[in-house]
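To the structural biology subgroup,

Please find below the input and predicted structure for PBP1A family penicillin-binding protein, which we are adding to the shared reference set this quarter. The sequence is reproduced verbatim from the submission form. If anyone notices a discrepancy with their own records, reply to this email rather than editing the shared folder directly, so we keep one authoritative version.
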Amino acid sequence: MDARIQEPVPQKQKPKNKSEKGMRGKRRRIPRWVGWLALGVLLTSAVAVASAIYWIRSLDIDKLAMPVKSPTLMMDRSGQTASRITSAKTDPVALDQIPEAMREAIVAVEDKRFYEHTGVDAFGIFRAAFRNAREGGNAEGGSTITQQLAKNVFLSGEKTLKRKLTEATYAWKIESSYSKDQILEMYLNQIYFGEGQWGIRRAANRYFGKEPKELTLAESALLAALPKAPSRYSPYRNKELALERRNLVLKLMKDEAFISNAEYEGALAEPLRVLGQKPKGDGLLGKYPSYVDAVIDEAIQKYGFTERQLLAGDLKIYTQLDPTVQEAMETAYADDSLFPPSAADRQVQSGAVLIDPSTGGVRGLVGQRGEHVYRGFNHATQLERQPGSIFKPLMVYAPALEKGYTPSSMLYDGPLNLNGYQPQDWDHRTRGQVSLREAVIHSWNIPPVWLLNEIGLETGKTFVQRLGVPLDEADRNLGLALGGLTRGVSPLQMAQAYSVFPNLGTLAPAHLIVKITGPNGETLAEAEPQAEAVLSPENAYTMTELLMDVVQEGTGKKAAMDRPTAGKTGTTQLPDTAAFRSISGGAKDAWFAGYTPELAGAVWMGYDETDAGHYLTTSGGQYPAMLFKEMMNLALKDVPATAFQRPDSQKDGNQGISPGRKNGKDDGKASKKDKDREKEERKRQKAQEKADKQREKEEIRKAKQDGKNLGRDNNRD
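Predicted structure (tokenized):
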């Protein structure tokens, strides 16, 4: 029997478990929806790419060939054009007329991969993002030169994702249409270099008085340092920071092998030198440059615009400017006889503001004497100096009236020692007691210090802060009665504060801008000032009567006009340091703050830097009062004299202090009480007549000081 070997029959291998069985089943059957989804994604991507290509191709970049916009216009209060804030932005120059060092400097600091990317540098974006995350804030930006060019020419400065994507799209279109050299040429001709200068030619002319081709390596590095933050790195504003930034550009050029180590060291050793004055023929500043500067500052600080946006053009800025008032101020400032003599090497500086007390609208403003520097230091708005005696009505007398004091209230005027603070009057004499009116007229120092102590320091501080006067944390002493502030004030702040009195106690915040409109007339920003009652109408009117007496009888006589005028003088002494102890008759600041029914204003005079060779030998009752009078006379020459308005509670047929009111009296119709008071005061004044006549010639006395107290008894007025 044959033995047969039976081969095993192969059997299907069973899944080891149910999970494996399920996986095999899934591999066999792919759901249809997965395929449809994949197809949908592919189609969507294709549509997106096609749309992006279409978008890029549809972008109009012809504007690169004609980049000049209409200038930004500043309109006056009547809606008429008052000034052009910018003329044509650019004055193009060919790339071969721009030195290689300038081109390399801008590439090194702004976009070192410029010749490698295609408009948007993904590597640069990631690098910037990483560095910003590591260092916090925005230490580095990711925009390429091409993106910056697109933003400057086609886009606004808003920081949104949509704008950033649009910027990138424009950059791709530009890169596909122009060569790298063409892009760099357009960039250098259109970028903003600060000081109102667009383009390399104007920048080279403004900073160095040269054509671009004449720029040195160090000068090129300085100009390349500016576009990132033109105001911050301006050599006219912060020379040290500008030098630091220039040297950084030089280092980046060396790191990129654009310059040798020897060239780097040579340029590094070159001093930073720029022109002291702008070349003639610059059309940017236009008319009313101080007012324009202040408008630009307000637009930036209050409404969030950038300088770049404001100077790029196509805007209208409607303002409170009154050309008649502004021109009156500029005419007065051109008259050197209205200012104290200056040192041979430095000019006495000044700033003044005139506002409408009923609206707060700034009608005119002058920020400096001499050559105007675009957005240079504005003494009318940016000054911080101690106000001296013009602070007394604000810090002491107006709050005291609110507490129940009257012009005839008797105030202490004798030896005073308040926790070591010993104020003295300018003549180092005391009168025992004086009326509040006498204290205001003659600007004695002891009575207001004593009175502030009586009504409470916080009472005075609260009142001046409601007027918009900034106080420092260290301002906690009775020296505030004499204007002894830690930081100080500006003419604009003092004009606003004094405007409360003719406006019967209502504060209308000072402002220059009414509204800003865009290219199509759309409103981009609009002022919404909120008036606030800070003083009773009766007490505001009483302060006006007192301050009229100051102008007619007291320290402010040189401001008297043929119309109702009220005001106060102020002078601050030289610092009590060894450098000034050998000097007699010197002052640091001289002020006048005052008003008519139509305008309120303030004037400051002094040196930017006070030292042993540069100080005033005058007082607020002299040149500042004279300048105030001249400005007002010119501004109001065609305006009939009107009366100060009275509060409703005092209207009995009279509409206010008449234009013919003299010496604080209403043409002989004063009450018996007022006549008796004036008779008594004349007796007191007779004893002081000799001293009063010599006031303008007498030296500013030095008084004792209370430690850090800045409110020295430093006022002749």
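Summary notes: The chain has 23 helices and 16 strands. Residues 265 and 428 are 62 Å apart (CA to CA).

Regards,
Lab coordination
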